[in-house]
Write a structure and sequence with these properties.
Blueprint: H1 4-13, H2 16-81
Length: 86
Amino acid sequence: MTTPNAEQASAADSSVGQLVEQLSTQVSALVRDEIALAVAEMKRKGTQAGIGAGLGAAGAVVALLGLGALVAAAVLGLATVLEGWL
């Protein structure tokens, strides 16, 4: 890595064509790095979303089973108080 002063000196001595070539190289490297960063972030977020969806589905199943248990308890409770009418 060169020092900023050396880069400024070499930039001052460079032709327009060389400067454009450096710009093109640096921009393409920046875009590639940003895309790689975005992909890594999306993988991490996708993993977290998958875990969250799994936990949500498990919670829904537990809630459904709990609701069934509450209905069964209500039926048994009413059966002790009321006579069967069917």
